[in-house]
Amino acid sequence: MRDAAAETRPVIVSTRGLTVEFDLRHGARRKLRAVDGIDLDIHRGEVLGLVGESGCGKSTIGQTLLRLLRPTGGRISFDGRDITVLPERRLRPQRRRMQMIFQHPGPALDGRRVVAKSIAEPLEAIGLPRAEIRQRVDRMLERVGLPLAFGARYPHELSGGQLQRVAVARALVGHPDFVVADEPLASLDLSVQAQVMVLLKELQAEFGTSLLFITHDLAAAEYLSDRIAVMYLGKLVESAPAAGFSARARHPYSRALLDSVPRMDPALERARAAPVLRGEVPSPANPPSGCRFHTRCPLAEERCRQAEPPFRQIAPEQWAACWLVPGTGPGETLA
How far is 119 from 153, CA to CA, in rounded Å? Predict the structure, then answer.
């Protein structure tokens, strides 16, 4: 996945052939391959939007990049260092430079600690003086739009939007190099979603943090991201710059996701074409042969059922895995 502007910046996180499998049952031989051979580069100061339906493997990728999950195969590099099988003792210094914003912020915060203590935790882990910790916590509370008095409150005393602001403050207070935001808007009301999305965009630009923004909402990804990667059933199916993605997307699955975005104009909503998607998402434990999307794609041909399409360039700075979209180059990895 290449972007002309991003390529001038060094890569902070990289994967090659990343694969993550889970046992279907304890001790079982059958595996569920949640992530299947993903190649990915995220540059310094870049926001990569990773988009797809629930169960496609997005969150698994995010957790694996932070080594909260251990990959089954492939390689993960962080700032040029291979961390794929790095033991916990040697991984700990790298983890200080990584953070995560969870979809449900409440369970991610210690209910027995006041908000200020939760935000301060990353700073305490790196041994900053108490006075500096207090200053930085207060500064972050103000920066995410919360009164300083909220620092003395417990998580159960805050609304969902306020909790997510605390989660953002906690993730960014230590100025990490890389943050995974895993569906940070999904549990919020629409009005609060917009506020948190604007906040994330402002803070990411201010701190220059590299951000993996995981979402099922292509409209949100287009607003917040520099590049967008679309994922289906453990595979990447399309990638392109976020600017104008809604007009340039070519893969039938990307188009279906875009068609599912509600339109504010009732006339446009009534004129919407019939949904492209049909049927249910196949089980990742038993994915279809050939193109994994062919069981739901109205355009599928026999070759779609027989062989998996390569991920190849279809336009400048745009790649897709679809037999029906003409390519301009040979199949190649996402880099």
Answer: 12
Q: Is 320 exposed, middle or buried (0-12, 13-18, 19+ CB in 10 A)?
A: buried
3-state secondary structure of 198: helix
* Residues 256, 277: Cα–Cα separation, whole Å: 6
DSSP 310-334: P-EEEETTEEE--TTS--SS-B---
Q: Do 151 and 140 contact (CB within 8 A), yes or no? A: no
Sign of CA dihedral 78, 90, 102, 147: negative
Per-residue confidence band for 328, with pLDDT thresholds at 50, 70 and 90: low
Give me the count of residues in the chain: 335
Q: In what order do the strands lie in the sheet with 73-78?
A: 31-43, 11-23, 73-78, 81-82
The pTM (predicted TM-score) of the whole model is 0.89
CA-nearest of 97, 188, 50 to 198 is 188
Enumerate residues 6+ apart whose C-beta is below 8 A from 225: 47, 48, 49, 213, 242
Are 193 and 210 a contacting pair, CB within 8 Å? no
**Which pLDDT tens digit goes with each residue over 132-161?**
999 999 999 999 999 999 999 999 999 989
CA gap 131, 250 in Å, rounded: 53
The model's pLDDT over 252-296, given as tens digits with 9 standing for 90+, comes to 999 999 887 665 545 444 444 545 577 788 888 889 999 999 999
